[in-house]
Amino acid sequence: MERLKKLGIIPINKDILYSLYGNLKRPDEKVSELERKGLVIRVKRNLYVVAPKVHNQTISTELVANHLYRPSYVSLESALAYYGLIPERVYTMRSVCTKLHKQYDTPLGNFEYVKVPAQYYPIGVRQEIIDNSYAFLIASPEKALCDKIVTTPNLRLQSVKAMGEYLEEDLRFEMSALSSFNSDIIRQCAEVGRKKGKLRLLLEFLGNVINN
Length: 212
Description:
Oligomer: single chain
Structural class: alpha+beta
Helix content: 40-55%
Mean pLDDT: 94
Largest sheet: 4 strands, mixed
């Protein structure tokens, strides 16, 4: 138990577990035993987390999301909810990636990955450090909103007014937060991302908010 406890909440592979029980002839059987006893949780093939009952910590689904499918960062509704920018509770951890769209149904919940262009991907991504013990990649509030607009199919926004209605009525966005948004991140996204026209509308709407 103590050996497992030291691993904390960081997702691990079988090699890490093998290193704890390297003197065994059949380490695979030991890993299966740990899983049966509920001491480790298999998230997918060759990816595990130590169970909370071992380390008495809450597992970070954001951290798991980063490890489950790489490269990726938490974004979209998951990031917007994380920052308190939308009121809805998010039941699927949604991330952005550069590879094919992917979904996982795991014992820790559902995870979804949405593809964006490689050139657009790194803009506005930050490392969130939690209690100096672990960190995960997440979109900045500005990038998460851009990602939402860019990846939402059939989104018809043809005016600055329509953009404001989308934010306030459809997303129920925390509009007061827009005054502190970094317009440079949105501008960079508009330069290289899809739906450039809609991102420029967002940029114009943001400018109106800041100037007023």
